[in-house]
Amino acid sequence: MDRRSVLKYSFSSLAATALLGSGIREQLLDKATHTAAILTENANDESYWQLVKNQFDFEKGLYYFNNASLGPCPKLVVDSTNQFRALLDGFPSKYMWGGWQKEKEEVRTKVANMFSCDKEEIALIHNTTEGMNIMAFSMDLNPGDEVILGNHEHPSGTVPWQHWQEKKGIKLVRPVLPILPESKEEIVEVYRKAITPRTKVISMVHGTNTNGMILPVKEISQMAHERGILVGVDAAQTAGTFKIDLHDLECDFYAASAHKFLFAPKGMGIFYAKQESQKYLKPLIVSRAHYTDESIRRLENYNTRNYPELLGLGTAVDYYNLIGAEKREARMRDLKHYFRSALESNKKFKFKTPAAKELSCAIQNVEVVGRKVGEVKNELFDKFKIDCRPMSGYRINGLRISLSVFTTKSDVDYLVNALHKI
Predict the structure, then answer these.
(1) pLDDT tens-digit map of 235-250
(2) Does the predicted TM-score (pTM) go above 0.85?
(3) Helices and strands (H and E) in the chain: how many
């Protein structure tokens, strides 16, 4: 089937039972079909990406370059999530406890297919922070054991280890990562030197929150496993930006927020644990007898949860597949090159993100030389209504610019012109 047919088929399978008899199934299918028609029958040029942007309802005049903090939902995801919420409120007990179990498992399958893994390796959680807590809480470590955490970890990736393990006498090793490495091996070597006979776990980001640097998870996982070390990954900044095959990455655990580059409803996250490593995991929350479940579902012990958001995640994956992983990645790499080439020759700007393809993608960090980044950020918003994230630590002093599929080259031109004026 062509991509439009795939979307309609996929979305129909979710809507068929979830919305049967509600009178809104056909409406949503029409919207899905219309969206598919727009995004599959136009050439892959700048007009195509303007059509993608039109699928998002931004505040008037806003130029949004802060997707790495929080992403928007396209209209299709907003509409479907709202319809699921209306259905739940129409018959609460039916859909909360049992009515949507089949649909929930369909979402799990969609997520697993997206990440090229088995559905029995995917838990549908709330966000990356929860996933990192599951990892840190679960590990049965002894005083003197060591966990490696690079210095660019997000607080949500370090605090769980501090809370659940450090106070037990576990040593947290904090190697310093280079800001602008020239190769993946340069990063691997940092972790190699940090390993000792007491190292039990490496917890690492896939993409740094600070400057968008992509870390070589596969190479580090291979090195770690040769020494019997587990590897957990914080993927908040990479999931949805380029094609990710979790089996190929070879990590043990992988946590991601779906509300950034996946454009899913806020409050949905994804947790992966490869089959042979699930034996290490314990549920962070328990209710009733579900904690005795030996499958990865034991990590979803919420009893009551926001099912409309979960089903909305399924629609977000449909939307992701509609554009396609390869097309999305190619677009973001094209935007990266377009943005960097507009500023790299000007000595007033200094990039704090490595340029190599394998070391960065959708997130770029640039310094306005001689200016404090907080002041620059405020001036961009006050004068030009450009929203981005200032990063002042790690000797960066730069603006974190998040590029996404709703970003047009016209948007980048506007940002570049504003930076020149500042």
Answers:
(1) 999 999 999 999 999 9
(2) yes
(3) 15, 13
